[in-house]
């Protein structure tokens, strides 16, 4: 007998039917999966084709060389636009908000098409991360409130691909966080529900240790009091680091840089972007039983964005650690 694994597509179809929803979301997710596969193809073959170079430079054949970031952006924007289901997108690689089907679209998509670009030159894992919010559907277009930047608690789904590992994780609003793996036919299969482990045995800490002396005194104090308890891991791509955290539990943080020897290098708002990095992992983490706050202790998903490329500090992971940190940051 042949053994079949449930496909992602079938999983999602059943999810939509269970909750009496339309198939529009399937069309959107099909485009996102198609884009991820194409990014992965470029990534795998990039070094050979010269795609991993500097944007705007010329390769040995005299052709334009695009960076993987630009290639990934173009791929995602193309497939999303093709669905005709998307109102607007915010991409890390586009300064402005990109309008798609403003009249008939249903979804807003916020994405980082290539997360962890410093890994590209080494062929190490990168990510494609996205968050999705929906048009206010009662009645027709409702005016400006239908065209605004949403906070993370308004997302209906968020997910990420870790490229080129063939893993895809998707969280659905109040329906859990699920991981899929690409099979031999490059089909994502075998949904596994991800829940952060409660016992601290496997918990890991993840942050750029090179920045410690530039963190606030409160954060440094917390690190000094806690690092001995855990293992330490840092891939340098949020998608990759968070991928580990979802299995093992622990904490990923990107604190404010406030004590840099060169004050011009300080980043009081942190480095990561709210809409397509922090909200994505925070949404997934919440659906996996974890939590996320910024350096003021505000839940990440409650932050109301005022700018589409807004940055935020980020502390995301197992609930007991976030609770402990919340006290330490406020105290
Ligand atoms: P991106 O490549 O999309 O700009 O994101 C890089 C981000 C994130 O993936 C990672 O966690 C962080 O930057 C690493 O920053 P440091 O090099 O400062 O540690
Ligand atoms: Mn990124
Ligand atoms: Mn990026």
Question: Would you kindly provide a written description of the structure presented here, covering whatever features stand out?
Answer:
- The strands form 3 sheets. The protein has an 8-stranded mixed beta sheet with strand order 4-3-5-6-7-8-9-10, with helices on both faces. It has a 5-stranded mixed beta sheet with strand order 12-11-13-15-14, with helices on both faces.
- The longest helix is centred in the first third of the chain and has 26 residues, at 24-49.
- It has 7 helices and 15 strands.
- The chain has 2 domains: 8-193, Fructose-1,6-Bisphosphatase, subunit A, domain 1 (Fructose-1,6-Bisphosphatase, Chain A, domain 1, 2-Layer Sandwich); 200-330, 3-Layer(aba) Sandwich (D-Maltodextrin-Binding Protein, domain 2).
- Helix 4 links the parallel strand 11 and strand 12 (231-232).
- With 331 residues, it is α+β, with helices and mostly antiparallel strands.
- One manganese (II) ion is lined by residues 112, 115, 238, 277.
**Main β sheet profile:** 8 strands, mixed
* Number of DSSP strand runs: 15
* CATH 4th-level superfamily of the largest domain: Fructose-1,6-Bisphosphatase, subunit A, domain 1
Structural class: alpha+beta
Low-confidence stretches: none
Strand composition percent: 15-25%
Total helices: the number is 7
Small molecules in complex: 2,5-anhydro-1,6-di-O-phosphono-D-glucitol, manganese (II) ion
Instruction: Fill in the CATH topology of the largest domain.
Output: Fructose-1,6-Bisphosphatase, Chain A, domain 1
> What topology, given as strand order, has the largest sheet?
4-3-5-6-7-8-9-10
What is the helical fraction, as a range of percent?
25-40%
